[in-house]
Amino acid sequence: MDKFAEFVSNHLVLSAPFFGLLAYWIFGELKNRASGVGTVGAKDAIQLMNHSNAVVIDVREEKEVIDGMIINSVHIPLDDLQNQLKKIEKYKDKPVIVSCRTGNRSGKACNVLRKNGFLQVYNLRGGILAWQKENLPLVKK
Known about the structure:
Layout: H1 2-10, H2 12-35, E1 37-40, H3 42-52, E2 55-58, H4 62-65, E3 74-75, H5 85-88, E4 95-99, H6 104-115, E5 120-124, H7 127-133
Parallel strand pairs: 1-5, 2-3, 2-4, 4-5
């Protein structure tokens, strides 16, 4: 442990960003858990879709979904989500996976859904980009 402390003190330029990112990541995870929002990777999302009838809500903009969406997903842009909750109200008791391009906007959408009574809300970690990186299919709208 002494060598670790010595390394940190001798390499502050390297250590400070590392500990900053670590704190940022831990804070984000704790915030998600406190809000009741989980995160799932692409393969776990498929398991939820196949075995628990999870629905995918895609919160990207119209111009983004032209390139493709996860099969059977419901498209509601983030800016319209609050106004279109009635459209997805029937999914309140089902697992809901929220996707966007990278996982940032979908995190915000997850919080909106939880505040409006959705019980099982998951953010697709890495968004559609992670989905594509796993070579998983997208369908054209």
